[in-house]
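Tokenise the fold.
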Amino acid sequence: MSYRYLLYLRRFLLAAISFFLLPPIVYGWLCLQRPPQTNLEQALFQGIVYKRIARSTPRPVMTHIVAIDLTSPGIKALVTPGVKTSHDGEIRAQTTSEFLTQFKLQLAINASYFLNFYEHAPWNYYPHSGDVVNPIGEAISNGYRYSQPEKYWSVLCISSTNRAQILESEKCPEGTKQGVAGNQLLVDRAQSAISDLGDDKPYPRVAVAVNREGTKLWLIAVDGKQPLYSEGVAIAELTKIILDLGAYTALNIDGGGSTTLVIARNQKPKVLNAPIHTRVPMRERPVANHLGFYALPIKQPLSPVERS
């Protein structure tokens, strides 16, 4: 064999090996970027406390809970604004990190279910950031309703006085400042509101919950679809988690690969959970809208409490 032929063969073999080894290497690196499977409780901002709960039975599950004191100075909610000149419900998709960055928020989570959507491969999905989508159900931002109520869907409504309520009425009352819809009421009057569970399998979930007075709001995000790390929870399990918080009402909102919880850290977005979009760990999905919060920094250095 000539030297040139051997050189070409060597290059071909190196390229082939790289082609087959690169995807698992990248996948493994992304898995290492996920939050550690340890318990954590930490004050993030004034009036906002974050808790991460890792459990191994009956399956691996990572649960993220943010408790927000709506009476705390500086706390202010924001739902992704709609475009008043667009057709009813049309909005441009963006990731939760993009939403948090654009509006200089301190905390954000994905919110409404939406259309259109498909996910075939890491390079073949819809929507991408900037694509047109339509939230399902009521969506209100700064008092402007840009998506109409959906029959039988419940709503989270936050007033101009910063009081939150979850209603089964499909539509928020007049004077609502921020509002989003969800497909299932989970807790009503401190009791389970679920009846028809259908095919209740473990899945990534997102829910919002409030206390009776409407002064405290919880964001609950559960990672899923990630074997050995977090496989998700069933609706009945999610409801139990919320009841244990002492919530008065709770609403299931868009979960699955949309599940993303983000905070601002050093003026940059930091993802607190482990999103999985197009089966790629730590990849955020562009979604229709989000629920975000402004907050003041805490007055002392962060002091995380690690628990075994």
In short: Residues 65 and 155 are 20 Å apart (CA to CA). The chain has two domains: 1-33, 36-298.
